[in-house]
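Reviewer 2 asked us to include a model.

Predict the structure of this chain.
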Amino acid sequence: MLSDHDVVLCDGCHDRIRWAITVNGRRQAINAAPDPKGNLAAHRDHTGTLKVRVLGSERPTLEHAEWQAMPHAATCTHPRPRASSRPGRRAAVRPGTWRWGR
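Predicted model (structure tokens):
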């Protein structure tokens, strides 16, 4: 049975979600309840951090204490636009010296 201590509400649809860390170190929202239709395997590591991996061709089945989870992005009814990593910033062109004929 999963504890609800890390369950929060989605900002868009207000469904219950958990934040997990992917194998690439990025944060990913997953639905709070296990889902047999989900394509993720979730587990808590030795530090208590919720980790997820994709159930893919290399490792298609659940292992050890993993449970099947659904990415929240697949079920969110009111997704919010992702914030830019640098809001208000635009791409700039560095001033330089033109050198013709070289």
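The CA atoms of residues 29 and 73 lie 7 Å apart. The longest strand covers residues 16-21. We have added this to the supplementary material.
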